[in-house]
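Class prep. Protein, please:
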Amino acid sequence: MKFAENNRISHRQLYRQMVLAFLAPFLLCLPGENRVTGISGIVGVAAALVLLVIYSFFLRRLTPWYTDPIKTFGAAGGRIIGVFFLSYVALTGAYLLDLMDELVPAVLITGIPGIVISFLAAAVCSFGTHKGMQRRGRMAEVSGGLLLGGVLLMMVLCLWQITPEYFTEMTEASVLQGKEVLKSCYGILAAFSGIGLLPFLLKDVEKRGTAGKPVVLGIVTLGGILMGMLVLIPSVLGWQRFRNEAYPVLPLLAGADLPGNVLARFDVLWMGFLLYSLLFALGSLFHYGHRILDRTRMGSGKLWLPAVIFGLSLIKFQGTGIRQIFDFYLSRIFVPGLLLIQVFMALRGKRRRQKKVALAAGLCFVVFFSGCAAIEPEKRMYPLALGVNSEESEFSLIYGMPDLPQATGQEKQEESGSEAVLSITGSDFYEIERIYDRSQEKYLDMSHLQVIIMGDRLLEGEGWKIFMEYLKEEPFVGENVYIFRTEDPEAVLSRESGGTSAGEYLTGLLENRLPSQQKDGVTLRQAYHQWYESGALVEIPRIIMENGELQVYLEKS
């Protein structure tokens, strides 16, 4: 059945709501940084999926006890159960807000504090969550398939970025260990523990007798995507980087291109999908919170529940925040407590009821963010090339700015294109940013950067490592950027090449050839990999000016 009536949702809508609510938190928070990695992680995920499928059938049998906890367990017992589930809703919501507080300003939006983003998310996602299920089901019907298809498409496009050596490196470095398998398995079970809230809503699902099928399909879909990512990410980024990145799914697509280089930074679109899923998950938690409060006769929570969740997201005490609190709570308190409560329900549930309670996950309003924030394009500077060098204790950044009318083909016939070069020197790269902000009227947008040119003096010492650390904190610098070295980066960037900017000219030297004649440059992603593996810089091409022309030598220097 594709669509449901009488304020119920169909099986397909139930399945898509599960995917929407779990997908982004799983992809962002489970892989990498010694959490779920390697062969042990994949085996652990597979084992957890088997247990979760079995658990889902057990969970459906408990739905009558969720229908009216007050009637079943008395006023005190029912409200204790309600508070237990409500604590999960509040802490999980705070965790998601804190995640958005960190990632959205760093990856998508500039100039807006993270606390403002989390406040707006809490306010918007809590609006209307007490209303009927059918509206929310239709929302998932429209957007769930689009999100899932988009994520799968992005994974397929990333297959062309796989480096066979990196895949071999992963298989050799990751060893199947029982302890790691158990750790990964329990981590996945804890992450999936949110499905323990499903019985609060299952009565709103059409054909409740077979509602377990979409639940199982949702579990298998999410687990399959996660296992695919555990293979894909280290095969693209390298094993050491995968293990050390906090959110390795974000740099996964930072250097990816659509076929034909139509859109070089479509990682912004990928992050848009993840943000949509995060907001849907947050709205679902508010919806569950309203249902729990209603079933346990504790009011509606329309105002105070969003305020509590937002307040919890701001917790910071001696280096401990909501992330650390939530990790401890989820694994040590909620999962064991959930099993104890459900075993207690099962022991009391020998007299079966025919009523089943329903699942629905809700989505409220989604704000479409983009990397342009609130700054108009004409008020931005778009360097296509970036030079960097050092002199004693100071660093220099040289920005190559193309003439925008010429670069976009809008110049008049008598106009000639040129590249403006802006050089700023400071004791470190952050001081250079402050100098730029004080002295330049336009916002610096690095999302169109094509090449980075390092000076020989920078490469002679440890300066290049400091520069790499700086680049890692610049989310709009794509990892498909080509890297070169030369004696004087400013001279290279100042050199006019037939009205073409240095970024376009150097990129063209590598790419604007027949397939058999194309040259293999070195990208920022390759430099990151070598740096993570051995702490050294990969051999990069050298630029030399001969007879007034720029020439690139790809031989190892």
Remarks:
- The CA atoms of residues 229 and 352 lie 41 Å apart.
- Residues 11-321 form a domain with the Amino acid/polyamine transporter I fold (CATH 1.20.1740.10).
